[in-house]
Amino acid sequence: MNSPVNKKKDKGRRLWLYFFPAFFLAAAALLLPILLPSGAPVGNGGQDAGLVVASAKDETDKMVFPLQRNDHFTIEYTHSVDRAPVCEYWRIDESGRLVLEMFENETFGAGLGDQMGTLATIGGRQFVKDINLEMERLPLRIGSISDHFISPGRTLQADTRPDIQPARLLDAFGDGELVYIYHVQ
Q1: At residue 32, does pLDDT exceed 70?
Q2: All residues at 6 or more sequence positions from 166 whose CB lies less than 8 Å from its CB, including other chains
Q3: How many domains does the chain have?
Q4: Full residue range of the structural domain in which residue 106 is found
């Protein structure tokens, strides 16, 4: 039997399950630029220009995509809790920072919500747009469930760089490995 006290506890638990991931993501977005060193990206010493995905262990470059300022890319993955596909739309701005413009998802699972932007339906698909979160370096934990892919040159409208194929990050990095994504000019 569900008493009013138990119902209140259940509602509080449900709110906590949605609030905590959103709070954690917002806090991480604010603190990461402070905690991570800015300035020149680490790794290749500027030899290869482009979007770099480097291991955080030794910061050696493992993947470099020939993207320049104002180019776009997506990071696609499976949400590790809901097992639903997510697609993040990124842009490299004029100063070389990575800018999360929007993301697409099927459900608002743990950590996915519209707190950082505006909820929109585009072509029958669900998006959170107008995020405009800027980062010097994006930390990303690679996972076998999430199975991250980077699609250089992809925008919502089209692939602007069909000459560059999408890349599966698990092909270059180990399960559970932390990588940094950043731009080198």
Answers
A1: no
A2: 76, 149, 150, 151, 152, 154
A3: 1
A4: 4-184
